[in-house]
Amino acid sequence: xxxxxxxxxxxxxxxxxxxxxxxxxxxxxxxxxxxxxxxxxxxxxxxxxxxxxxxxxxxxxxxx
Length: 64
Description:
By secondary structure, the chain is an alpha+beta fold. The protein has a single domain, classed as CATH 3.30.1390.20. It is built from 2 helices and 3 strands, in the order E-H-E-H-E. It has helices at 23-31, 47-55, and strands at 9-14, 40-44, 60-63. A 3-stranded antiparallel beta sheet has the order 2-1-3, with no helix packed on it.
């Protein structure tokens, strides 16, 4: 069952390089819309996005 859109967002910034990391982590960054250092993206706050952020938490920073 799909949840109703709540309008909540989360902004993430890439602070680490995916070089010499698992290729899955690079693909996760691309899935988040990040592919270069210091890029920021504002995304819908869903469990899927939160899981992706947790997977590459050492490469990204959540901006308040």
